[in-house]
Design goal:
This protein has 268 residues and is an alpha/beta fold. It has one domain: NAD(P)-binding Rossmann-like Domain (Rossmann fold, 3-Layer(aba) Sandwich). The protein has 8 helices and 7 strands. The chain has a 7-stranded parallel beta sheet, with helices on both faces. The protein is globular.
């Protein structure tokens, strides 16, 4: 499904006027916040997610702007993501930046998780980023450079269950430091943002807050200020890394976790 597939630069005001971005996982939560923020400041955006309905709802809520291209796909399926990036770059007239926000995990603890769970978690996170970057780099080069932001996690450098997820996020963080050096000559910056536990409507922590307030209050103790991270707070940091104001910043992992200790209520 494609919506808003029109050529030409978007004319608007803001930090990103005339800029062109690909954002994976842009239909809900943090990804949706990033898409909305970029569009509100003049960018043109191509975004993808697995669910058709959330993408259509996002597009309707924005008044169906021609500044937005959306497509339903699974980023872990080789070929689909690459085709989306190529089509997005063609529709937008090039690329100036990329945000890898899609991700996830499959399986439970080490004695229960299957090899397929580990492989699927790896592909959703590490494989997806590798293929996204590889396909985007030629378009960023044509634009004279750009910025790539990979959404990792506090779980990538602070231990917590499940191991397959933390391992994949740690790999993303290491990948960023390597790619930043590899692509520096092309004037392409690569950085990671590691959100802490985010309070997203309908998701795990929001459900805990409503269904088990005692457990939620206990979990809040992992944050020195007693408050979980909001998606808008993370989106603001991602936006900064996409601007020219961060042109000297590359190869870093930037925690946006309000000083969170353990990433889960399990306490590790």
């Amino acid at each position: 499904m494609d919506v808003g597939h029109e050529r030409g630069r978007h004319v608007g005001a803001g930090r990103f006027a005339g800029r062109r971005f690909v954002v994976t996982g842009g239909s809900r939560g943090l990804g949706e916040q990033v898409v909305r923020l970029l569009l509100s400041e003049g960018a043109r955006v191509a975004t993808c997610a697995r669910g058709v309905e959330p993408l259509e709802a996002l597009h309707r809520s924005l008044g169906a702007p021609d500044a937005l291209l959306v497509r339903s796909l699974d980023v872990s399926v080789p070929g689909l993501l690459e085709r989306f990036v190529e089509d997005g770059a063609s529709a937008l007239g090039g690329l100036d930046g990329v945000v890898a926000c899609a991700g996830g995990a499959r399986g439970r603890g080490i004695t229960e998780a299957s090899p397929e769970d580990w492989a699927a978690t790896w592909e959703m996170n590490v494989g997806h980023v590798a293929r996204l970057v590889a396909t985007s780099v030629p378009h960023l080069r044509e634009s004279g450079g750009g910025s790539i932001v990979v959404v990792a996690s506090v779980s990538g450098w602070k231990p917590g269950p499940q191991a397959q997820y933390g391992s994949a996020k740690a790999a993303q963080i290491h990948m960023v430091s390597s790619l930043a050096r590899e692509l520096a000559r092309d004037r392409i910056r690569v950085n990671a943002v590691s959100p802490g536990s985010m309070l997203i409507p309908g998701k795990r922590w929001d459900r805990m807050r409503r269904e088990d307030p005692v457990a939620f209050d206990r979990f809040r103790g992992e944050f020195p200020g007693g408050e979980l991270v909001l998606t808008q707070e993370v989106a603001d940091v991602i936006a900064f890394l996409l601007t020219d104001q961060s042109r000297a910043v590359t190869g870093i992992n930037l925690p946006v976790d309000k000083g969170q200790n353990a990433p889960t209520p399990e306490g590790y």
